[in-house]
Amino acid sequence: KRVEEDLALPGLPKNKVLATIVSIMERTFIRVGNEEYARTNKSYGLTTMRNKHANVKGSRVQFKFRGKSGIEHAVDVADRRLARIVKKVQDLPGQELFAYVDEPGEVRDVKSQDVNDYLREITGEEFTAKDFRTWAGTVLAAVALNHLDPFQTKKEAKANVKSAISAVAKILGNTPAVCRKCYVHPAVLETYLSGDMIEGLKRKTEQALAENLPDLRSVEAAVMTFLHDRLVAAKAAA
Questions:
Q1: What span, in angstroms and rounded, lies between the C-alpha atoms of 99 and 118?
Q2: Stretch (H or E) spanning 108
Q3: Alpha-carbon Rg of the chain, whole angstroms?
Q4: Residue 203's pLDDT is what?
Q5: Rounded distance, CA 197 to CA 102, Å?
Q6: Nearest to 80 by CA among 55, 59, 56
Q7: Is domain 130-237 in CATH 3.40.50.720, yes or no?
Q8: What is the number of H-type helices and E-type strands within the chain?
Q9: 8 Å CB contact between 63 and 75
Q10: CATH code for residues 2-127
Q11: How do the domains of the chain map onto residue ranges?
Q12: Which helix (H) or strand (E) holds 167?
């Protein structure tokens, strides 16, 4: 709700541009960016992209950039309102893509800390852009696992996990090893390998995929309920 309100603000104030970045992160899982990486490695995230990294055509935006580990990305976002805002920030003075106009009328570049501060403000939690990607990785892994055919052996189960992690890593722009270690909650993999289905998740996943939902909120809710139940069970057993 807060993001929607900020996207509707007039002009290009700080919160409107931050809401735009968060909305794009939610759809694409692009990293927030690190100024040192951009400077030394020429690798970019949302807050360090240059104007040349975004191409707006009508209601679509394509981001083409080199990410961490030198991986080249081409990511499309189809949203008329976001495309319109990206076009407006491109027209601001300076090479940085995401900038805003402060109260005195000065153009200021958005920093990664601005995004993290905004996420903490709108969630009321110590929530960062890294947490955003970790949650996305967990949800995507659950989606991928429950979309695969049922396994008959432990070997098939491990192969399915490997396939799912590889698919998620490709979306997040990580290596599979880093993805599994840092971006997927281990409880999801443990439950799958034990042969237990996550209650209600397969049906919700199939519905979300059939409707091509960009945010997968129904699946997110199922994963959150599952993780909560695992936590409660662990506490009860302690």
A1: 15
A2: strand 107-109
A3: 19
A4: 58
A5: 50
A6: 59
A7: no
A8: 11, 5
A9: yes
A10: 3.90.15.10
A11: 2-127, 130-237
A12: helix 154-172
